[in-house]
Prior knowledge:
By secondary structure, the protein is an alpha+beta fold. It has 2 domains: about 1-220, no CATH class; about 230-390, Reverse transcriptase/Diguanylate cyclase domain (Alpha-Beta Plaits, 2-Layer Sandwich), CATH 3.30.70. About 65% of the residues lie in helices and about 10% in strands. The chain has helices at about 1-15, 20, 25-55, 55-80, 85-105, 115-125, 130-155, 170-220, 230-250, 265-270, 270-290, 315-330, 355-370, 385-390; strands at about 255-260, 295-300, 305-310, 340-350, 375-380. It has a 5-stranded mixed β-sheet with strand order 2-3-1-4-5, with helices on both faces. Helix 13 (about 355-370) links the parallel strand 4 and strand 5. The longest helix is centred in the middle third of the chain and has 53 residues, at about 170-220. The chain starts with a helix and ends with a helix. About 30% of the residues are buried.
Amino acid sequence: MEYIIKMVFKTVDKTILRIFFGSSVPINVRFFNICIIFFTLYGAFLGIFLSLFGIAYEFRVFCIATAIIFFLLFFWANVTKKHNFFITLSVYLFNMIFLPASYLFAGGITLGFIHQIAVGFLVTYIFLNDKTFFAASIIHPLWYITIFYLSYKNPGIIIDLMADLHFDDTHITHMIEILSFIFNMGLITAASALLIKALVIAFKEERRTSVNLLKELENLSVKDQITGLYNRRYMLSYLEDAIDDMHHENKPLSIIMFDIDKFKDKNDTHGHMTGDEILKNVACAIVENCRRSDIAARYGGDEFVVIMPGVSGTAAYISANRIREYIETKNIVPDIDIRITISGGVVSYEDDLNVAVLLEMADDNLYKAKNRGQNMIVWEQVYPISKYTGIHQ
């Protein structure tokens, strides 16, 4: 059943019906449209069916009139876009007029009206909330009790739906009443179950969509759009937490700062599109050669930072050289013959070093690698002047 309902939803999304029933429509509006169209078709079908037999004149006129009213409510709600107002209005009309009129015009309690009341409560619980729901929870039961009481005191106000059939055999009449009761009960139960099932599935789909959207928004807030790596803001926050964790656990922590050699010349020569491709592919190469526990981020421009929790300076230096050699031998831009190399600076955490000082030390080592000929890694634990002067960048 769930598979069929999902297939129906997907089919609707591919047709013009998606305007009213598609997954992009808010769930309350979508199911309001579904319910009101169902009641419109149900009323029209029942009115036409009774007309074919020429019976129950009052009830068939009521059914056709109800179908017209429900269709107009559907039309006005979707034209004016005042869905909340028309949802509330429709629920009140359904409970205050349609169901009581069905009770009076269709022979009273004998034709399954109890189950119709259940549908009335179900519709109220699904579509109303806050003050409108609270009011309906009081008004509708009191109104039903009033109708029952009036019909009990004045049985003549109930129209006998079987009277027009002119059956002399009371047994046949009784059997028809039982069959009508069973039919109404089955139809109402099946429709209610289908509605609830569809609501549950739609809720699951919307929840899945919401979760995916939240993940996408989270990625946009912490990821760099070009490279897909973490952005500078996230990296700084993560590094600060990592320093605290490594300090308390007495474990090593190292970072590597990479820079693409002569990137500006390549970007100016081959264009920004090629420059973006270089950034993206270098980022992929870095990630491919890192552990899952490492955090790779774009620090800015053509600079990248890799945070390596639990890794000593020596191990980080070896990893940095492995990444450098991998990029040097890899054809970073397949369509263009460009030799890409990177330089890097490695530094390991020591007590009393904060985020700014640690990054400054890595940047100093990167600067030394650039000045010494590029395409190399430098690892020197030399504290910058700012550590001694108290000036933190």
